[in-house]
Amino acid sequence: MEADPDIGALLPCNVVVRTEADGSVVFMDPAAVLGMVDKPQIAKLGIEVRDKLQRVADAMRG
């Protein structure tokens, strides 16, 4: 929010990580959404959040 006050319009209020019938785990890619803002520190944050969500998805797969 400090890097770009308007980023709040792009941020989801919640995060959904779900398992599909075929066992795949899906979630919205925050790096893709936050990459729409032309600021390197915001893009870096999106990548960090995506990496954390990926660890959650990996744990759900077992």
From TrEMBL:
Coiled coil: none
Top-level taxon: Bacteria
Domain DUF302: 1-26
Xref: InterPro entries: DUF302, TT1751-like_sf
Name of the protein described by the UniProt record: DUF302 domain-containing protein
Source species: Acidithiobacillus thiooxidans ATCC 19377
